[in-house]
Amino acid sequence: MKPPIPLNLGDVLLLRKKHPCGNDLWVVTRLGADIRIRCTKCGHSVLVPRARLERMIRKVLEGTNEDRDSRTD
């Protein structure tokens, strides 16, 4: 089994399929067993199980979470 893809709040995801509005960029707005993502063009929000979302992701483009830069793990 593959380890889970590390996701953080504010990460922008490039998904394999386009949304009906024509956009394929989504922002992570909630984390957990289910992950809420929001379309960056039209604002539509979807709650997706983590396992299904990981199959949909083509690339994690960027994150807007400042905590990631200031962590000293």
Task: Identify the notable features of this structure and list them briefly.
about 70 residues; alpha+beta; 5-stranded antiparallel sheet
How would you summarize this macromolecular structure in one to three sentences?
The protein has 73 residues and is an alpha+beta fold.
**Helical coverage, percent range:** 10-25%
Total of DSSP H or I helical runs spanning 4+ residues? 2
Largest sheet features:
5 strands, antiparallel
Taken from the alpha-carbon principal axes, the silhouette is globular
Chain-averaged pLDDT? 86
- Backbone CA Rg: 12 Å
Q: Give the strand order of the largest sheet, numbering strands 1, 2, ... along the chain.
A: 4-3-2-1-5
pLDDT below 50 for ≥5 consecutive residues: which ranges? 67-73
What do these coordinates show?
With 73 residues, the protein is of the alpha+beta class. Helices cover 15% and strands 37% of the residues. It contains 2 helices and 5 strands. Strands 4-3-2-1-5 form a 5-stranded antiparallel sheet, covered by helices on one side. A hairpin with a 5-residue loop joins strand 3 and strand 4 (45-49). The chain is globular. The protein starts with 11 loop residues before the first strand and ends with a helix.
Tell me the layout of helices and strands:
Blueprint (H helix, E strand, L loop, with lengths): L11 E4 L9 E6 L3 E6 L5 E5 H7 E6 L4 H4 L3
Antiparallel strand pairs: 1-2, 1-5, 2-3, 3-4
